Structure to design on (179 residues):
């Protein structure tokens, strides 16, 4: 015995501690699976965010498009707001070559009624097939952040068709009263 009352233990040369390759591979597989799942979730979230917030500016709006339009509700992705404002793939567009009666703040019943007719007719016209939304002039957006575009089908302005049907006016550069 050594001083202090404690005996020195002999080395344990005959005991070997080991872990089986099986234990290690289970742990490795668990980590790999966790990393794979985490990576997949990250990719899905990132893809969803890119899909929602991708800036579909003029390149998307100027492309030839066929969509299914309806009157806008709570979700505004591709729909018609009124006779001269639409949403196209999440981009708000002001039809630049026309002016139509207001629906949201009409000055009289006539303006409201004509505005509803213009909106509904625009829905029907847009659902008739391909059209192009092209930039006109040098302004890309108005003061409300709407893209300024002319909608063309076979080289003819859809806005001009609304004007010919008495549902819109050619844009003069300022709003004129409808009442």
């Amino acid at each position: 015995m050594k001083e202090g009352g404690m005996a020195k233990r002999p080395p344990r040369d005959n005991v070997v501690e080991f872990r089986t390759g099986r234990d290690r591979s289970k742990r490795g597989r668990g980590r790999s699976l966790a990393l794979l799942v985490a990576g997949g979730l990250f990719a899905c979230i990132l893809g969803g965010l890119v899909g929602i917030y991708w800036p579909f500016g003029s390149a998307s709006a100027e492309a030839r498009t066929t969509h299914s339009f309806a009157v806008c509700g709570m979700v505004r992705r591709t729909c018609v707001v009124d006779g001269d404002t639409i949403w196209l793939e999440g981009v708000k567009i002001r039809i630049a070559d026309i002016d139509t009666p207001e629906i949201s703040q009409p000055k009289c019943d006539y303006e409201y009624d004509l505005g509803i007719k213009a909106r509904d007719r625009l829905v029907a016209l847009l659902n008739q097939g391909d059209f192009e939304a092209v930039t006109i002039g040098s302004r890309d957006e108005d003061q409300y952040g709407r893209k300024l575009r002319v909608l063309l089908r076979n080289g003819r302005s859809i806005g001009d068709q609304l004007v010919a049907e008495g549902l819109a006016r050619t844009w003069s550069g300022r709003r004129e009263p409808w009442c």
